[in-house]
Specification:
Layout: E1 5-10, H1 14-25, H2 27-34, E2 38-44, E3 60-62, H3 65-70, E4 76-79, H4 88-97, E5 101-104, H5 107-123, E6 128-129, H6 140-147, E7 153-159, H7 162-174, H8 178-187, H9 196-199, H10 202-216, E8 226-227, H11 235-243, E9 246-257, E10 260-271, E11 283-290, E12 294-301, H12 305-321, E13 351-361, H13 366-376, E14 381-386, E15 397-404, E16 407-408, H14 409-422, E17 430-434
Parallel strand pairs: 1-2, 1-4, 2-3, 4-5, 5-6, 8-10, 10-17
Antiparallel strand pairs: 7-9, 7-11, 9-10, 11-12, 13-15, 13-16, 13-17, 14-15
This protein binds L-homoserine.
Length: 438
């Protein structure tokens, strides 16, 4: 059919296979809604003979994604390979240089090369759509690029990694180990090819970098984001959090401050009963706070083949409906050339409450000494408890949990250094920030 939107898909893993199935099974509905058929014409993947559960025989096979990207028989290059550099980077550039629109789920690529690729797309009058790159199936990019145009964003935050949220939820609900939960997340197709990107927070960081750019009109600046993953979170932390009225979530937060943009990714204690605390399993949630609208939260499946393919299909539909020669909207919400440098506000200025878990030598005066070190930094304590539980009494160890009122990162760090110098501490202190979002 001559008026088909012809797509070439590079990367037929979990998401690619779901997209092929979606385009095949919903062909008629998509044709009606997009105004013309969406037709796969070429595919590329690492292994030609692997069974992916979807028939690929009707499509031309390409060993090289860059060749597929330039092929005369495609209008859109769909990049689902992943990876921040080549081959994805080279193939996307080849597509844009050859006049092909691009749809990508690759947040790592855009976090590193997003501004350059946006400039290239805009210079060539092409669309570079990346709904599938952030928060899986939640249509947050479209909302931020289009629906919130009249809003000035003060903060964007949320749960942006399905794998981490799944792990933390299952650890709490089923008492499973971190490793067991990660294995399940991998089997369910939520995790990145390299799951350390999920659990160390890099995946959330990539997504936050893109949301911060869209929110504040700044260049994508992944290096400006403070990063801490969930690998140091123990079942003990999760249980203590629950007892004290909190739940642990891996959050990404980017806020406009007088000193610039403060962006951070780290585990956080959120109050039980708050909307963000109720986001469980693979679900993601993004909260956008603005001057005009106030606060909105969007939630939905944040990972997995079908959820991510749903977002990519929506991007394809937008391209199918666009008119040739029509000036398309800017990739990052405003022309890439007008994005301002990202000025990083120092993390140490972060203010809020803190959860601190210390394992100390159990002897008289230890608790009082810790309280004194906190008082020296003018840290007000909401509670201080010595928890029973999985304590190695033979070594006379005691776990102590402190919840502080609002204070600064600097004060907490100075106080913990002083506690360490005093000598009662066994191992490292666990420090988790308390966040109230929305
Ligand atoms: N590995 C990612 C996640 C997939 O778990 O959220 C979506 O980017």
């Amino acid at each position: 059919m001559s008026n088909s939107l012809r797509i070439g898909i590079a990367g037929v893993g979990t998401v690619g296979a779901s997209l092929v199935r979606l385009v095949q099974e919903k062909h008629e509905m998509l044709t009606q809604r997009c105004g013309r058929p969406i037709t796969v014409t070429g595919v590329n993947a690492r292994s030609k003979n692997k069974d992916r559960g979807v028939p690929l025989d009707d499509y031309k096979w390409f060993d090289d994604p860059a060749e597929l990207a330039k092929d005369d028989n495609i209008d859109v290059f769909v990049e689902l390979m992943g990876g921040e550099d080549d081959p994805a980077y080279g193939a996307v550039k080849a597509a844009l240089n050859a006049g092909k629109h691009v749809v990508t789920a690759n947040k790592a690529l855009l976090a590193k090369h997003g501004v350059e690729l946006a400039e290239l797309a805009e210079a060539n009058g092409l669309l570079l759509n990346f709904e599938a790159a952030v928060a899986g199936g939640i249509p947050i990019i479209k909302v931020m690029r289009e629906s919130l145009t009249a809003n000035t964003v003060s903060r964007v935050s949320g749960i942006m990694n399905g794998t981490c949220n799944y792990i933390l939820t299952r650890m709490e609900e089923d008492g499973l180990t971190f490793e067991e939960c990660l294995k399940d997340a991998q089997e369910l197709g939520f995790a990145e090819a390299d799951p350390t990107f999920d659990i160390e927070g890099n995946d959330t960081l990539h997504k936050l970098a893109l949301l911060a750019s869209l929110s504040f009109g700044t260049k994508v600046a992944q290096d400006a984001i403070y990063l801490e993953g969930i690998t140091k979170i123990t079942l003990e932390d999760i249980e203590a959090a629950k007892d004290l009225g909190f739940r642990i979530k891996l959050l990404g937060i980017a806020a406009r401050t007088p000193d610039g943009v403060e962006s951070r990714v780290h585990p956080a204690m959120v109050p039980l009963g708050s909307p963000i605390a109720e986001i469980g399993g693979v679900t993601n949630a993004v909260i956008v706070e603005t001057d005009t609208l106030g606060s909105i939260m969007m939630s939905g499946p944040g990972a997995g083949g079908d959820a991510t393919a749903s977002a990519a299909a929506g991007d394809l539909c937008d391209i199918a409906k666009s008119k040739p020669g029509h000036q398309h909207g800017p990739v990052l919400g405003q022309p890439a050339a007008t994005l301002i440098p990202h000025e990083r506000a120092p993390m140490r200025s972060h203010a809020g409450g803190y959860f601190i878990r210390l394992t100390v030598i159990d002897k008289p005066g230890t608790m009082a000494a810790i309280a004194t070190r906190m008082a020296e930094q003018e840290i007000s304590l909401e509670s201080i408890v010595q928890r029973r539980g999985k304590v190695d009494t033979s070594n006379e160890q005691a776990p102590i949990i402190l919840i502080t009122h609002e204070t600064t990162e600097q004060a907490i760090k100075t106080a913990l250094e002083a506690v360490k110098a005093d000598g009662p501490l066994i191992g490292d202190a666990q420090m988790i920030r308390i966040e109230k979002l929305g």
